[in-house]
Design a protein that fits this description.
By secondary structure, the chain is of the alpha+beta class. The chain has three domains: 2-66, Roll (Structural Genomics Hypothetical 15.5 Kd Protein In mrcA-pckA Intergenic Region, Chain A), CATH 3.10.290.10; 84-166, 2-Layer Sandwich (Pseudouridine synthase); 172-319, Pseudouridine synthase (2-Layer Sandwich), CATH 3.30.2350.10. Helices cover 19% and strands 28% of the residues. It has seven helices and 15 strands. It has helices spanning 17-24, 30-38, 113-120, 154-165, 245-252, 274-281, 312-319; strands at residues 2-7, 42-44, 47-48, 61-66, 84-87, 91-96, 145-151, 170-177, 185-189, 191-195, 198-205, 217-226, 231-238, 288-296, 303-307. Helix 1 (17-24) packs across helix 2. The chain is globular and about 65 Å long.
């Protein structure tokens, strides 16, 4: 068990206790925090508080007892086909297909990229601090396709993690967006954190003032556009790497990713062709692909720059749009 301590400031005074904790504990859901409060795991100025609805006051100290995570089950190697774009004795780069989860999570204990690479590398991978994420340095959403780098040694894992932290890994995406940005090129700078109204979603904030909100920046450029359909193909470069960053940022400028079930449900009002409108509306995932990744090789220091071919579903959808 670990004990977390937080101070209530003027900006957070008056909030319900569960909402205050949800704001400062970005890794714990509000429903879980409510349960912890009711179980006596929260103290306000040293006194156990069992009411999630209690109001906080300026200057109070809130302590939270966080139980240790239950032991994780062993990760099993599974023979899952992988499209390998690059591989040597230090690392490999995959072209992850849509629908494949990167690492085990609730509801997905097998059939993941982690299971597949464990089999491919004959179970000889660095744990990187988490036995369920061997060699995993970054991740892609389940329905996002594209380039994913995996470390095969501790040295590679440490180097790639360091480059990731220093923002030295270049990651480029392409997205088919329902809408067109106002400029041909630009930047979206909105801090990202949990949506206070829906903890399963992320949200963009104009300023990183609330607790647990982190700065985020995405560069974009219009690669192709269809003004008559109000659609655009965007090339995006991540300056930071927050959860759902591209999806949140594009939705914030009213250009949600086609097929995104969480951050955008456009009506495609300018699309007159009924069949095309149906294909766009029924596209089964976010039309987002990690097309390129570039970084320094952890041993040689040379630049590794790899492009991932588009998956068939995205390619066919874009090709179906009128020239």
């Amino acid at each position: 068990m670990t004990i977390r301590r937080y101070s209530v400031g003027r900006g957070t005074a008056g909030r319900r206790l569960d909402r205050f904790l949800a704001g400062v504990c970005g890794d714990i859901s509000r429903s879980r925090l409510q349960k912890l409060i009711e179980e006596g795991a929260v103290r306000v100025d040293g006194v156990v508080e069992l009411r999630p609805s209690r109001s906080t006051a300026d200057g109070q100290t809130v302590e939270l007892d966080v139980p240790a995570a239950p032991p994780k089950t062993a990760l099993l190697a599974e023979d899952i086909p992988l499209e390998i774009l690059f591989e040597d004795d230090q690392l490999l780069i995959l072209n992850k297909p849509p629908g494949l989860v990167v690492h085990p999570a609730p509801g997905h204990h097998s059939g993941t990229v982690a299971n597949a690479i464990l089999h491919h590398c004959r179970e000889n991978l660095p744990a990187g601090g988490d036995p369920l994420r061997p060699g995993i340095v970054h991740r892609l959403d389940r329905e996002t396709s594209g380039a994913l780098v995996v470390a095969k040694t501790d040295r590679a894992h440490e180097s790639l993690a360091r480059q990731m932290k220093k923002r030295q890994i270049r990651k480029e995406y392409v997205a088919l967006a329902a809408g067109r940005p106002p400029l041909r090129k630009g930047a979206i700078a909105l801090a990202i954190g949990r949506d206070p109204k829906d903890r399963k979603k992320m949200k963009g904030f104009a300023a990183p003032s609330p607790p647990a909100i982190r700065e985020a920046k995405t560069l974009y450029a219009i690669e192709r556009e269809w003004p008559g359909l109000d659609l655009s193909l965007l090339r995006l470069t991540l300056v930071t790497g927050r959860t759902h960053q591209i999806r949140v940022h594009l939705a914030a400028i009213r250009c949600p990713v086609v097929g995104d079930p969480v951050y955008g449900r456009p009506r495609y009002e300018k699309v007159r062709d009924a069949e095309l409108k149906r294909r766009l509306a029924e596209f089964p995932r976010q039309a987002l692909h990690a097309e390129r990744i570039a970084f320094r090789h952890p041993v040689t220091g040379e630049t590794v720059d790899v492009e991932a071919p588009w998956p068939a579903d995205l390619r066919e959808l874009v090709e179906s749009l009128p020239a």
